[in-house]
Automatic annotation (TrEMBL):
This is Ketol-acid reductoisomerase (NADP(+)). Involved in the biosynthesis of branched-chain amino acids (BCAA). Catalyzes an alkyl-migration followed by a ketol-acid reduction of (S)-2-acetolactate (S2AL) to yield (R)-2,3-dihydroxy-isovalerate. In the isomerase reaction, S2AL is rearranged via a Mg-dependent methyl migration to produce 3-hydroxy-3-methyl-2-ketobutyrate (HMKB). In the reductase reaction, this 2-ketoacid undergoes a metal-dependent reduction by NADPH to yield (R)-2,3-dihydroxy-isovalerate. Transmembrane segments: none annotated. One of its GO terms (molecular function) is ketol-acid reductoisomerase activity. The gene is ilvC. Mg(2+) 1 binds at D191, E195. It comes from the Archaea. The active site is at H108.
Length: 330
């Protein structure tokens, strides 16, 4: 079983006399910076002066400076800008100030794991990652609790890198819910696999294939949308709160029997073979390489796929129905 750290297992000793620079003030940056500041830690925020975040962070009461100044001043540099822009910003504005004994910290292992950021040998490399979007990280903290999180140490130069990561996790409120110790490799590879196979890739293709099957068979697109997409939330909420077993107990016996007897015809041996291949591409770096080249080329494939996805009938039908349900305005 994994190791889980709670509030009582962690102190602020390794971080309380250090300056923590949060680089970026988006979804995670804002939430994590505010939580750590409210926990009494010394937080500064590093941003580009021309960006929209600059004034937002000042308004929230932070000490704001350029990325370079923040990287120079801080003992811990916590990088929370989008993963694709991290390597360039790191190289130009952070690396020159990453002197011996400092800690470079992330909320996702991608750039370190795939070697797109290569810090010098004499610094700590750590991860503190909330298992939830920034807005939830802030909201649950203000309510007196926190979302669960992960910590990992890729390199422990000073001997207390794990205590530093855990101190930050405590400051963000993650140890209130529980923090799991993992590795950069495990976090990165499972994250990519989950989003490709289930959360983003698998689920959308399942919905679209089922929607198209009904529409092609002559059923009303509105009915198809309700049954193959809209109602998914009810099932996912049940699974989220009560697990797979709890979901089965809450649907009709007909749904349970039909689901249990038919599901392996949809997700079959071939699907599992594809999952294994996708995992292999993540593990051997082929996916990361492809994604880097795609970005270098200006994301032509991504843009084409985005266009196709937007033009699908399910988007038109969905927009109308969500308006009808009061879920979406104009
Ligand atoms: P965002 O897309 O919300 O980050 C936007 C922020 O980055 C803005 O403050 C923006 O400032 C700043 N920024 C962008 N480019 C630059 C630049 N060139 N120089 C300086 N600042 C810049 O990122 P997220 O919060 O979504 O993700 C941050 C990290 O957290 C990633 O590693 C991600 O994988 C990880 N993570 C994210 C989760 C999430 O729920 N979103 C969950 C768990 C981990 P400006 O206003 O100037 O554009
Ligand atoms: Mg991800
Ligand atoms: Mg039904």
């Amino acid at each position: 079983m994994v190791k889980i750290f709670y509030d009582k297992d962690v102190t602020f000793d390794a971080v309380k006399d250090k300056t923590i620079a949060v680089i970026g003030y988006g979804s995670q940056g804002r939430a994590q910076a505010l939580n750590m500041k409210d926990s009494g830690l010394n937080v500064i925020v590093g941003l580009r002066p021309e960006g929209a975040s600059w004034n937002k962070a000042i308004k929230d009461g932070h000490t704001v400076m350029t990325v370079e100044e923040a990287a120079e001043k801080a003992d811990i540099i916590h990088i929370l800008i989008p993963d694709e822009v991290q390597p360039a910003v790191y190289k130009k504005q952070i690396e020159p100030h990453l002197t011996e004994g400092k800690t470079i910290s992330f909320s996702h292992g991608y750039n370190i794991h795939y070697g797109l950021i290569k810090p010098p040998e004499n610094v700590n490399i750590t991860m503190v990652a909330p298992k939830g979007p920034g807005a939830m990280v802030r909201k649950t903290f203000e309510e007196g609790f926190g979302v669960p999180g992960l910590v990992a140490v890729e390199r422990d130069y000073t001997g207390d890198a794990l205590q530093i990561a855990l101190g930050m996790a405590k400051g963000i409120g993650l140890t209130r819910a529980g923090v799991i110790e993992t590795t950069f490799r495990e976090e990165t590879e499972t994250d990519l696999f989950g989003e490709q196979v289930v959360l983003c890739g698998g689920v959308t293709e399942l919905i679209k294939a089922a929607f198209e099957t009904l529409v092609e068979a002559g059923y009303a697109p509105e009915m198809a949308y309700f049954e193959t997409c809209h109602e998914l939330k009810l099932i996912v909420d049940l699974i989220y709160q009560k697990g797979l077993q709890g979901m089965w107990e809450n649907v009709s016996n007909t749904a349970e029997y039909g689901g249990l007897t038919r599901r392996k015809r949809v997700i079959n041996e071939e699907s599992r073979k594809a999952m294994k291949e996708i995992l292999k591409e993540i593990q051997d770096g082929r996916f990361a390489k492809e994604w880097s080249l795609e970005n270098v080329a200006g994301a032509p494939q991504l843009n084409a796929l985005r266009r196709l996805e937007k033009e699908h009938l399910i988007e038109k039908v969905g927009k109308e129905l969500r308006k009808m349900c009061g879920l979406e305005k104009e």
